[in-house]
Design goal:
- By secondary structure, this protein is mostly beta strands.
- It has one domain: Umud Fragment, subunit A (Ribbon), CATH 2.10.109.10.
- The chain has a six-stranded antiparallel β-sheet with strand order 1-6-2-3-4-5, with no helix packed on it.
- Strand 2 and strand 3 form a beta hairpin.
- The two termini are 14 Å apart.
Length: 69
């Protein structure tokens, strides 16, 4: 992945997020009810970010150089 840390993350972006010290790559989904990090792989669950979690978006993925299986 090529990641741009200068891009302001928006709904629908693929982001590198840090939740309680753990990094993950997921699609950002924001709504009035909260933040969900959506998994593109159906084998993995979506992550609903709890209000008291230590959460930040580290960067926005801009390019994938190749597909991983």
């Amino acid at each position: 992945l090529i990641v741009d840390r200068s891009i302001q993350p928006r709904d629908g972006h693929v982001v590198i997020a840090v939740i309680d010290g753990e990094m993950t790559v997921k699609r950002l989904s924001t709504s009035p009810t909260g933040v969900v990090l959506k998994a593109e792989n159906p084998d993995y669950p979506d992550l609903h970010v709890a209000e008291l979690s230590d959460f930040r978006v580290w960067g926005v993925a801009t390019t994938c150089l190749h597909h991983l299986n």
